[in-house]
Amino acid sequence: MNSRTTISIALVLSLLVAVIPSTAVSDEVLPLSIQSALKIRNVPDQALSIYVEDLATGEVILAWNDAIARNPASVEKMVTTLVALDTLGPAYRWKTEVSFLGDIQDGVLDGDIALKGYGDPYLVTERFWQLLRDIRAAGINSISGDVLIDDSYFAVGDYDPAAFDREPLRAYNVSPNALLTNFKVVRHFFEPANDGTGIRVRMDPDLQNLDIVNRLRIANGSCRGYQRGITITPNEDVSRITFSGRFPSGCEIYSMTRAALSHNEFTYGLFRSLWEESGGVLSGAWRNVVLDPNLEPTLVFESLPLSEIITKVNKHSNNVMAKQLLYTLATEEIGPAGTEAKGRQVVDKWLAERGLASTEMRLANGAGLSRSSRVTAKHLSELLRYAYDSPYMPEYVSSLSLSGMDGTLRRRLRNNGLSGQAHMKTGSLDHVSAIGGYLQSRSGRRFIVVAMLNHTDVHRGPGEEVQESLLRWLYDQ
Asked: What pTM, to 2 d.p., does this model score?
């Protein structure tokens, strides 16, 4: 056999190895497609952790740095939602209590109306409107007194919304609250006026106690640029927001969502706006109170069930809702007032009781919006195995984004057969990219998959490229 023949055979063998999927890979080898994705972006392979396990057999398909604790970003929500589902059950509901503190005559409440929150994570405008409909159905059209607000069920303490990234108006930085309404955010809409001389600004919900100062000017140009040239300047208590800058004439309409007011001011503003919009009369203002615990509420408004709540948390990666879950675990298992520290205690106890404790794990706020969160890929896979073997597996798996179809994966993994094949939770922070969940391969095998990449700028694209390389390789197993 001559040297040319030897080289040809070696070349053929190397190509076969590259294209024929193996059933398992040792912890010393990464699939070539993943190596290539890392190399082309100059990302060291030691910045990556992967753990893949066959759900049916328990066989480890791929383990790479799986014992190194890394920042999981929003993949942390998978832990919070699993503990909540397993502890509270899928049918758990929050309540919001309403009390009429006065006599009712001819549709007029001669006194105050009191609202007490118990942490409903999804008391958005539409749901709050339904609560007000229940009040109207009780025979009240006019309220002579104030709106009393009791949010004492949670004790959030001093919370700085600018602490994480100096973006205090961003929706993801909103603090938890026992009477959280509409996530404490307003959607602002901007569009050129009909006469072409200025910019109209409107907001939803339309809060009368939020002062908007419009100093926007119109500028010729296409609809582009950071925030379309809009600069936002809040006053100290966020009761006034000033919009300035030059808005492109090429924009027919543009919207942005930002936090506003304090929690209780927001709830009062939403109450007044919706109440008066439906023809009701409110004569008073608002007060923060702690109601007598023996006070019997006039009516109780229930939330959506927990099974629907965790779907909104995981599919859309809602940070404040995840924090609400952690505080709720605190109140249900330890007692009010709920705190973040108590919530972490509940999670630690849950892990220990199920033999799932880990010294490497550091749960921050339940949402993953933290630089200090840590977990290993192997530990996350153990939690995913527990979830898959639990009675609530269908509710948990269906709460995750479906590749190429909904949630944070709606625009990803649409090609090469991957659409609809993976239920995953994604996570992304500056220099962090992570994913975890379940994948069904082309042959029908099901896998637990966890991948975390912590390195400079991986959130700008390299992280997703590595994840897709992993899932494509695994799909062909």
From this structure: 0.91
pLDDT digits (tens, 9 = 90+) for 348-378: 999 999 999 999 999 999 999 999 999 999 9
d(CA 403, CA 105) in angstroms, rounded, equals 56
Judge whether 125 and 158 are in contact, CB under 8 Å: no
Closest alpha carbon to 267 in 125, 120, 110, 109: 125
Fill in the DSSP letter of residue 362: B
Instruction: Give the model's confidence band at 21: pLDDT under 50 very low, under 70 low, under 90 confident, else very high.
Output: very low
Q: Where are the beta strands (DSSP E) in 65-126?
A: 95-105, 108-117
Residues ≥6 apart with Cβ < 8 Å to 98: 113, 114, 115, 131, 134, 135, 297, 298, 299, 300, 301
Tell me the C-alpha distance between 256 and 263, whole Å.
19
Measure the CA–CA gap between 93 and 144, rounded to whole angstroms: 32
Q: Pull the structure tokens for residue 69.
A: 């604790």
Task: Report the phi/psi class of residue 162: left, alpha or beta, with left for phi > 0 and alpha for psi in -120 to 50.
Answer: alpha
Residue span(s) of the chain under CATH 3.50.80.20 come to: 93-303
* pLDDT mean over 209-222: 94
pLDDT greater than 70 at residue 19: no
One-character DSSP codes across 377-414: HHHHHHHHHHHHHSTTHHHHHHTSEETTTSGGGTTSS-
216 is written with which tokens? 């926007």
State the pLDDT confidence band at 197, using cuts at 50, 70 and 90: confident
Nearest CA to 432 out of 37, 73, 38, 76 is that of 73
Confidence of residue 287 (pLDDT cuts 50, 70, 90): very high
What letter represents residue 276's amino acid?
E
Report the distance separating Cα 417 and Cα 415, nearest Å: 5
d(CA 425, CA 74): 8
What are the residue ranges of CATH 3.40.710.10 in the chain? 23-90+307-475
Residue-wise pLDDT tens digits, 375-419: 999 999 999 999 999 999 999 999 999 999 999 999 999 887 899
Q: 93-303 domain in CATH 3.40.50.450?
A: no
Correct CATH for 23-90+307-475 of 3.40.710.10, 3.90.1170.40, 3.30.450.370, 3.30.870.10? 3.40.710.10
Beta-carbon contacts of residue 23 (< 8 Å; ≥ 6 apart): 59, 61, 477
